Description:
By secondary structure, the chain is of the alpha/beta class. 41% of the residues lie in helices and 19% in strands. Strand 8, helix 7 and strand 9 (213-218) form a beta-alpha-beta unit. It starts with a strand and ends with a helix. 3-isopropylmalic acid (IPM) binds at residues 76, 91, 94, 244, 276, 278.
Amino acid sequence: MPIYKLALLHGDGIGPEVIQEAVKVLKVVGAAYTFEFTTTAGLIGGIAIDETGTPLPESTIELCRQSDAVLLGAVGGPKWDTTDPDKPRPEQGLLGIRKELELFANLRPVKIYEPLKDASSLKPEIITGIDIMVVRELTGGIYFGERARRGNRAFDTCDYSKEEIERLLKAAFELAQKRRGVLHSVDKANVLESSRLWREVAIEMSGDYPEVELHHMLVDNCAMQLVRDPKQFDVIATGNMFGDILSDEASMLSGSLGMLASASLGATGLALYEPSHGSAPDIAGQGIANPIATIASTALMLKYSFNLDDAAAAIDGAIDTVLSQGWRTQDIMQAGGKLIGTQEMGDKIAASVTANMAQF
Ligand code: IPM
Ligand code: MG
């Protein structure tokens, strides 16, 4: 029986609560699909600043490097909010681990859970059947370019090399090949030089993927099209900052940011899985956060890191079942349902995995 080594980086706010539920579900899935895993916790974010003075201690990086996969909760909170460039910020921990592990491709699948289609702020006929994969570049662009504060002036630089664009677009073209064959490369080529390079690289590469239909779309137009007609999208590939913004927007198609999973894949084979939402400090510690994004992220882990597609499908199926039974955390109550907390949601999804297994 394989034994996988998982690094757990709980982080701040609701991070520890949602990780706990994800691990609960993984244990049940492991028992059903015959794999085992060990977990080792590492510090990241605000709690790491409090305990060690830095948002990303060396020991955390080392732990991740020695693991088979990383599961991360969320970082940040008002306690560590500062505009002082000399003070450490929790987010530096997250950006740092992405960079250290070379996790350049961030996959954020957006799908509609049928029972939740009334929870979206968009009309059901606009969102029914959508299935979008946002592929966000994660280790370059304006997040990592040169920046400085000079007196009353400050700047951030958006910097991309051809190689960085190529490896991201390669991942996106390959995903599109396996999906419905449509790729939207999103940029701001009417203004930004880095976007013009991005577009040139996309055009150059498209010859290698004749079966993929490549579209170029400006990011402002994409933001509009996502709410006007989201069904036109299959794979969206874009830079770090545009991807950050568009994926939050796209998550609302499915009703809540609490539903959006993510996988960050890299150059080394080691990958990191995390919900796309933040640490939600306003509801931390109350037991009301939605753990589904994190649980669905572990399904991505089983699929992308361990090739356990059946076990991943069991998690996705259990989430569907529990939602169709009407169970809801508070963030997805818009269309009614039976309100439960974080732990109950984890319990129900875990129980549903077991029940579904028992049918075979
Ligand atoms: C995300 C988050 C992070 C980002 C923050 C917390 C630094 O918004 O993962 O989307 O901007 O990448
Ligand atoms: Mg974000």
